[in-house]
Amino acid sequence: MSKNSIESTLHENRIFNPPAPSEVGASEWLISSLDQYQEMYDRSIADPESFWSGVAEDFHWFKKWDSVLEWNAPEAKWFNGGKTNVCYNCVDRQVDNGYGDEPAIIWEGEPVDDSGAPLDQRTLTYKDLQTEVTKLANVLKSKGIKKGDIVTIYMGMVPELAIAMLACARIGAPHSVIFGGFSAQAIADRVGDANSKMIITCDGSWRRGKVVPLKNNVDEAIQLMKDNGNQPVEHVLCFGRCHNDIKWGELDRCWNEEMEKASDECPCEELDSEDMLFLLYTSGSTGKPKGIVHTNAGYMIYTALTAKYTFNLIPNDQGGQNQVYWCTADCGWITGHSYIVYGILPNRVPSLMFEGGPDYPTAARFWQIVERHKVTQFYTAPTAIRAFMKWGDEHPESCDLNSLQVLGTVGEPINPEAWMWYRNKIGRGICPIVDTYWQTETGGQIITPLPGATPTKPGSCTLPFFGIDAIVCDEAGNEAGVNQGGLMAIRKPWPSMLRGVYGDRQRFIETYWSTVAKDGEPYYAAGDNTRRDEMGNFWIMGRTDDVINVSGHRLGTMEVESALVAHESVVEAAVVGMPHEIKGTGIAAFVTPAPGFDGGDELIQTLRAHVAEEIGAIAKPDMIRFTAALPKTRSGKIMRRLLRSIAAGDTEITQDITTLEDLSVVAKLASSDEE
Ligand code: WT7
């Protein structure tokens, strides 16, 4: 065992009990003991319908539901017959109840001055948000967008992105947000799959002092769609963010001009609980990214309840003492959907939005924001925490972080060293850490500590949230013993579960509902390996499929392989994950070059740029190795486990790639289950 792994085992065995609320400066813990958690959890599992209808009572309904749950595996209908509107519950309800002047979104953008102080900063109250959202909803309607039409949103992290999402929700037009780091090709794939009539974008967004040319990428995507005869887009609505010079084409409309003309009267559409709220594309082990479908009522209720309890969100008139919640994710991912916008606004605690990079213009940028806005809840990814560790303690030490009460992490397993650093250097050695495990498909956090109730261990996401009947099991649904590895599965439906893969029912069933079943009843299979320790805590041990998690961003290895083989210089490619100090998982590509192409540094650079062009910079391989052939089993399957161990530097043949073709070496290293 290496020194590091011994240290990490020591950390993993430490137990941190929740502090008293006053120790972190909170007025109370909403769930304040393990017993209270357990009592509520047991109730939520024994009688989910009464538990969730109790929660739903706190929201606004145009018409109450006829039934809480109709479950015909894998089809779930929650609050069927009910009519509600997510935008109303996020925005209008707060205004109607007299809270219109309270801050809803606090935004900091680039550019910044040399000290990191923002030159661009805005606060939108619920009333401001209502005005902007209603106007934009009218703009969308004036372009012929109506209930059921899918609107693509490709923007930077400006409040207008949240406004666009909420405007869509208001009129029942499902949105499909595409992360601003994706390429033109990736946009074209997603817009084509969703058959989206409208794209909302920005002229550009700021990132580390540079403009990301979002509108240009959209133009290019539209050209790509035209070229292959699938161009559904009728309007491109472009928000002027950074005076970037753009071309105006015949589909283009100017957000700023349209908004000036728009009326701010637009009642919320009375939508069915099960109408689609949004589509969000995510990677799987095969094929193109799939559009995960989420619907209105269940998603709204589940994300709001998890946000409330996981982050201990308390509005001012209930004793919250000016809480400010900040999630550093981008709205292009599910974390931004659920825990910047939809789960936070109903809780009436301001949500901070941030445009830019964590180390621009200084590595203290995040901590300066925490200090400036007196952030109380902070939610980020392990990859960011590892980067901060590397940049040095002097950066957080230069700022006043005493306002922090709860620290969250999400996206990938957090290594115990990073967990300890987070707690000690950011959380004053006292703030509870909530390591939240969930997925695009689960809509909201499903395994997570509650800060005032759950004893935590560094590296464990601990216990299931209310209503989540999660188990570790084998394919027959038999539960694993203590500390025995198995599949992460969920036996019962929950309100924010995915309702499908857009346009591909077969894929929905195959991916999630065909791995684990007991007595003929399928369980939801999350695609992760996991175990539970003697306290019942979950420990996530990695994916069961060919999905990798790079800096908390989910990628299919096959997507990267397809991008590589699309290049003329590549005959065959195999992509696997490899350990990476900051990213958690890095991308390793093994490539067989085409005749006439020499595998050298120049080709490495060309291929990296090519992958960025095909997918986005996040998919660039960290390591490319050329080989005359890929190691395969007798049945012709690429030996991924072998490649993973080579990429990790675990095998003796690391230094000599020519031995990849030496079948005797390969046969010795390959384990039998690869065949
Ligand atoms: C996959 C889902 C959930 C929003 C961001 C990622 C991994 C996520 C954790 C965690 C260990 C985690 C899993 C999961 N994952 N959170 N706290 N501990 N692993 O959403 O892109 O849909 O990815 O991320 O492997 O299946 P996503």
Radius of gyration equals 24 Å
- Work out the helix count: 21
Shape: globular
Unreliable spans? 654-675
How many strands in all? Answer: 31
Helix content: 25-40%
Total tally of structural domains: 3
Distance between the termini: 30 Å
CATH architecture of the largest domain: 3-Layer(aba) Sandwich
Structural topology:
Blueprint: H1 3-12, H2 21-24, H3 34-46, H4 48-56, E1 67-72, E2 75-80, E3 83-84, H5 86-99, E4 103-112, E5 118-125, H6 126-142, E6 151-154, H7 159-171, E7 175-177, H8 184-194, E8 198-202, E9 205-207, E10 210-212, H9 214-227, E11 235-239, E12 252-254, H10 255-261, E13 271-272, E14 276-282, E15 290-295, H11 296-311, E16 325-327, H12 334-342, E17 351-354, H13 365-373, E18 377-380, H14 382-391, H15 394-397, E19 406-410, H16 416-426, E20 433-436, E21 470-473, E22 486-490, E23 500-501, H17 505-513, E24 516-518, E25 521-532, E26 538-543, E27 547-550, E28 553-556, H18 557-565, E29 570-580, E30 584-593, H19 601-614, E31 623-626, H20 640-647, H21 663-669
Parallel strand pairs: 4-17, 6-7, 6-8, 7-14, 8-11, 11-12, 16-17, 16-18, 18-19, 19-20, 30-31
Antiparallel strand pairs: 1-2, 3-13, 4-5, 9-10, 14-15, 15-23, 21-22, 22-25, 24-25, 25-26, 27-28, 29-30
Helix pairs in contact: 3-4, 5-6, 5-7, 6-7, 8-9, 14-16
Bound molecules: 5'-O-[(S)-butoxy(hydroxy)phosphoryl]adenosine.
5'-O-[(S)-butoxy(hydroxy)phosphoryl]adenosine (WT7) binds near residues 411, 439, 527 and 543.
